[in-house]
Amino acid sequence: xxxxxxxxxxxxxxxxxxxxxxxQSQAYSFGRWVARLAARREDTxxxxxxxxxxxxxxxxxxxSPDLDGVVETVLKHAATSYVDWFKSVxxxxxxxxxxxIVDDHILDDAWNASSNGHGVVYAGGHLSNFNMFLMMLGTxxxxxxxxxxxxxxxxxxxxxxxxxxxxxxxTPISMGSLRTAIERLKxxxxxxxxxxxxxxxxxxxDFFGHRVQLPIGHARLAVRTGSHLIVGVVQYIQDxxxxxxxxxxxxxELTGDSDRDVLRLAQQxxxxxxxxxxxRPDEWLMFHPVFPEAMPD
Length: 297
Prior knowledge:
Helix content is about 50%, strand content about 15%. By secondary structure, the protein is an alpha/beta fold. The protein has 2 domains: about 1-95, no CATH class; about 100-285, no CATH class. Strands 1-9-8-2-5-3-4 form a 7-stranded mixed β-sheet, sandwiched between helices. Strand 6 (about 205) and strand 7 form a beta hairpin. It starts with a helix and ends in an 18-residue tail after the last helix. The relative contact order is 0.16.
């Protein structure tokens, strides 16, 4: 019941209302209380997905006692991130600028590539408060198109509506939005999408020693439009403050075999993201079962 409400279309709007009316400390307390409730339900898909994902990235078995309490830790971090995101939505662009520190090259590399005749694809992962990164792009006036999850329903619909308050161009993945993204990149523009959620339309990639069907659209867009690629991640500093970082921009290797080049770039991207996940496993907020074989029957 609790999970269904959180994922409903009403859930994010209620979150913004709570963030607006409660002092920040009380909003954190409320969010972490909700996280504790959710973590007690060991029979839910949410619990099993988080625990199995954490087991794989930590090199443990699902039943390992070393994982006891990990689900609650991950969900509490998610609750904190959501409170800060909802606070930003409630209080505006100045709050966003105060809430995230951005490495200069994350934006400078993109503008330089565009100035030199290349589009830029940002590839992101579900690390910490990635919504804050998206809103930062809006406040910094980077004209980026966000390719979001294709099923715009429930909380996904509300999340996208909240993001658009910050002049973020959110387009659920479809044939039309992909055509728009291709044209944008050909005109030296910017596109962003997530890369670490299982995708039945993707390809098998090596991910923490498992073959996982993951998105490769970011790599396909980059290779086929001659664009460069940036892996962007967000890391927690303290309550209310985050760090946007990542490696320097990647110029894809183009051999003339586009299919092979796409898979190579997609694997390079997920390898890079894996390093950041290993560094801060508690901050990988992936609530879908990425490694189904690691879940209990």
